[in-house]
Specification:
This protein is an alpha+beta fold. Helices cover 29% and strands 26% of the residues. The chain contains 11 helices and 11 strands. The chain has helices at 3-16, 28-36, 55-65, 69-73, 89-97, 117-127, 141-147, 163-174, 185-192, 201-221, 320-324, and strands spanning 226-236, 241-251, 254-261, 264-272, 275-280, 283-286, 304-310, 313-318, 333-344, 347-361, 364-376. Strands 6-5-4-3-2-1-11-10-9-8-7 form an 11-stranded antiparallel beta sheet. Helix 3 packs across helix 5 (89-97) and helix 3 packs parallel to helix 6 (117-127). It is elongated.
Length: 391
């Protein structure tokens, strides 16, 4: 295989094996959406998404997500805390009065102390109507928030929790159903009059389109086993172009996917017994982490910059900084990711992904534009693993 195609195959594998968790992605678009709805203001220095949130800032956001900012601003609840500034006093007072927060001591709220991911996940669960000690415990808040879809693959970094993650998790929580099952948190805030529906119209439309896509994705994931016909076009910045074809079969958590240029194997992904393998430079080697195929590939809503839906067709655009951090190939960077899907009989019948990826090659950067289309076949094949692969 020509050298450029070997490198392009590495780029294709990087695109196909997006996995892991983001650490410092930029969720400015989530902050913008929250600001448009009156839920996030920032500071006099802007959004300041790259610093750790304080307990006071988290308290303000919780009151807003509970739809109680107006009640807090027009109340005068007393607290025993001596370290709460005037701007935060109404919010902390309302939370204290309603037994939704306590201080770090009898007289200190801990206004300027860091807010952790665990603390903020607890706040969001309260906003969704889940009571501490009932549905979950504080110690299990992160796990329970993951189960409820509040925390996903990209929106929370428990080791380096930033205001960036606050806006991403808050935005995600707005799209999740409340504990009483009456609708999403955003629906509840609009119903209470805490958010103007016209100000939330763009976010509402995106959430509704996303939910329709999710229903199709979940229905597709239950249609195991299934086989897709694959086509791919790879173009580098020297205008070399290659066209490839292949198939992918998914059966539960088992996977076999191959792309060939003529008779030459360009890409291979195989998963068996919870272990993922990749075909690289003539060898099938074990990958860093398996892919969760049981529920299909779920798109983190905090990574979605745009989504259009019409007549069963969905077109997504993503934040490169978010998904770029999930590429497993060392030194690779992503400048654009797009995804589109079309339903067929309630299932995702055709899916197309486009990625612009840069790879370091001999001291210089080579870019590739990769387009991969998967079309659901009429009949499912069996998962086929390469001879000699250890499982």
């Amino acid at each position: 295989m020509r050298q450029w195609m070997r490198r392009a195959a590495a780029g294709l594998l990087a695109a196909a094996a997006l996995a892991g968790a983001a650490s410092a992605a930029n969720f400015t678009h989530c902050a913008d959406a929250l600001k448009d709805m009156g839920l996030f203001i920032g500071t006099r220095n802007g959004y300041e998404l790259d610093r750790v949130p304080t307990r006071a800032e988290a308290a303000v956001m919780l009151v807003r997500l509970l739809g109680q900012e107006d009640a807090a601003q027009h109340s005068d609840f007393a607290t025993p805390f001596t370290d709460v500034p005037a701007w935060a006093a109404p919010y902390v007072g309302w939370l204290y009065e309603n037994e939704l927060t306590v201080g770090v001591s009898g007289t200190r709220f801990g206004t300027t102390l860091d807010c952790s991911a665990q603390q903020y996940a607890t706040f969001l669960l309260r906003a969704l109507g889940y009571a501490d000690g009932d549905a979950y415990t504080y110690e299990g808040a992160l796990d329970f928030a993951r189960e409820q879809g509040v925390i996903d693959a990209v929106n929370c970094d428990t080791e380096n929790f930033l205001r960036d993650h606050v806006v991403a998790m808050s935005y995600t929580a707005l799209s999740r159903p409340t504990e009483d099952g009456t609708g999403t948190l955003l629906d509840a805030l609009i119903l209470r009059g805490s958010i103007n529906k016209s100000q939330a119209s763009d976010t509402l439309t995106l959430f509704q389109s996303y939910q329709a896509y999710e229903r199709a994705r979940e229905q597709t994931s239950q249609a195991d086993p299934r086989t897709y016909e694959l086509t791919a076009t790879i173009t580098d910045n020297a205008y070399n172009t290659a066209s490839c074809r292949g198939t992918a079969t998914i059966d539960g958590d088992d996977l076999s996917a191959e792309l060939r240029q003529g008779d030459t194997l360009v890409m291979g992904l195989y998963q068996a017994d919870g272990v993922l393998y990749q075909y690289v430079d003539g060898r099938t080697v074990r990958a860093d982490a398996p892919v969760d195929l049981g529920g299909g590939v779920q798109i983190p809503i905090s990574a979605v910059m745009g989504l259009t839906a019409q007549d069963g067709r969905y077109a997504f655009s993503f934040v490169p900084a978010v998904l770029g951090e999930m590429v497993t190939t060392p030194g690779a960077s992503v400048s654009q990711v797009d995804y589109s899907a079309r339903t067929q009989g309630g299932l995702l019948g055709q899916q197309t992904g486009r990625i612009h990826i840069a790879l370091p090659v001999n001291g210089r950067t080579v870019t590739y534009e990769i387009e991969l289309t998967a079309t659901l076949a009429d009949r499912a094949e069996q998962v086929s693993l390469p001879d000699g692969m250890e499982v």
